[in-house]
Design a protein that fits this description.
heterotrimer; A mainly alpha (97); B mainly beta (96); C alpha/beta (209); A: 97 residues; mainly alpha; Cyclin A, domain 1; globular; C: 209 residues; alpha/beta; Nitrile Hydratase, Chain A; two-stranded parallel ribbon; 11 helices; 11% strand
């Protein structure tokens, strides 16, 4: 059985939802954070690492989360894995918002 | 470093589901196609995904498959194709 | 297979409560700024850069290729260099390959493993490009998917799907519509839609815009 991100080859998956939405600010910020962290100038993390982390999400989480929810979940996990941030300080900061 | 395959070569995509990160979709594994072009050598994403240096670089090939060979009843035109980029270590010669 | 509905994540403007994910993003951003890993200005500029990259860039490239055969030849040989000629910054794009649709060949692009897309020249991909169902189906039922997008192709045409799994990003050069001989390059660019550069549509006819 292929892993959850490995989607190709299922002709009966169902109709394609062609509705589009404009990205909201938090989605753009998520994108911007990744672009900056992966930039040649910073090299804090790599897009390959982001992919690996997204692929490691629980299958139901992968399918339920929206695109940028997957991204920010993975960016957070990677920053913690690399010892740059801790879960506790992110929780604390999120509480203050 | 020399490339193992040339345009026109018949190749089979290896079967595999290593525990880590890899960029060879399951649906194309085990299928036989032909080399269209060699893109050059690129750092190996299987290493980059874990903070490695991605070296040695791997040759990356553009491989062509006939759509009917993908065993589906949906595509009715025999000339339809699928082109996909596959790293060299995922390819083997499709000798008889 | 269940397809996640993105609509429920549409921004709600008249609320003061942030969602869980909004809080995570803003918390992470302010911590990274506090730690000196980035500045607020850099984040702002990254968002601006994202907003500035739209399919209009790709349309400009295609329109030039339609009117200038020498440029098209260069685009097909080394797309990144050709795009740069037009003053378009390709950013961190590794390798760009342009693929041409003709009377006999129709190309369509997907990334079945994630969402690889030529972002520096097309902007962020549409929701459906990233959707699980598009990724699942187009590689094995391209004609069925294209039909869903309103494009039915003759049996004699080769439908060629590109699954971008690695460092290469693909840009489709749609076929130039008939009856556009008299149009300026600028007017031609208006016929080049985002979807025609992904390959789920043809370029517009002049009477369609």
């Amino acid at each position: 059985m292929p892993r959850v991100h490995d989607r190709g080859g299922w002709p009966e998956a169902g109709p394609i939802n062609q509705a589009e939405h404009d990205l909201s600010l938090w989605e753009k910020r998520t994108d911007a954070l990744l672009v900056l962290l992966a930039s040649p100038a910073k090299q804090v993390l790599r897009v390959d690492e982001l992919r690996r982390t997204i692929e490691s999400l629980a299958p139901d989480a992968y399918e339920k989360l929206s695109y940028y929810e997957r991204w920010i979940t993975a960016v957070e996990a990677l920053l913690i894995e690399k010892g740059i941030l801790t879960r506790e300080e992110i929780d604390r900061k999120a509480e203050e918002l | 470093m020399s490339a193992k395959f040339q345009p026109g070569d018949s190749v089979r995509v290896r079967l595999g589901a290593p525990p880590g990160h890899f960029r060879t979709p399951t649906y194309i594994q085990g299928k036989t196609g032909s080399v269209v072009a060699r893109h050059g050598a690129f750092r190996n994403p299987e290493s980059l995904a874990y903070g490695g240096d991605g070296l040695p670089k791997q040759f990356l090939y553009l491989i062509r498959f006939d759509q009917p060979q993908l065993c589906n009843q949906y595509t009715v035109s025999p000339q339809d194709t699928l082109f996909i980029d596959i790293y060299e270590h995922w390819l083997e010669p499709a000798g008889c | 297979m269940h397809e996640h509905e993105h609509d429920e994540h549409a921004p709600i403007t008249d609320r003061d409560e942030l969602t869980y994910y909004e809080k995570r993003v803003y918390a992470i951003q302010s911590l990274l700024i506090e730690k000196g890993l980035m500045t607020a200005d850099e984040v702002r500029r990254a968002v601006e850069d994202m907003d500035a990259r739209t399919p209009a860039l790709g349309a400009k490239v295609v329109a030039r290729a339609w009117v200038d055969p020498a440029f098209k030849a260069r685009l097909l040989t080394d797309a990144k260099a050709a795009v740069t000629e037009l003053g378009i910054d390709t950013g961190t794009l590794s390798t760009l390959v342009a693929i041409e649709n003709t009377e006999k060949l129709h190309n369509v692009v997907v990334c079945t493993l994630c969402s690889c897309y030529p972002r520096p020249i097309l902007g962020v991909p549409p929701d459906w490009y990233k959707s699980l169902n598009y990724r699942s189906r187009v590689v094995v039922d391209p004609r069925g998917v294209l039909k869903e997008f309103g494009l039915e192709l003759e049996q004699e045409i080769e439908v060629r799907v590109y699954d971008s799994t690695a460092d290469i990003r693909y840009l489709v050069i749609p076929a130039r519509p008939a009856g556009t001989e008299g149009l300026s390059e600028e007017d031609l660019a208006r016929l080049v839609t985002r979807d025609s550069m992904i390959g789920v549509a043809k370029a517009r006819m002049p009477d369609q815009y």
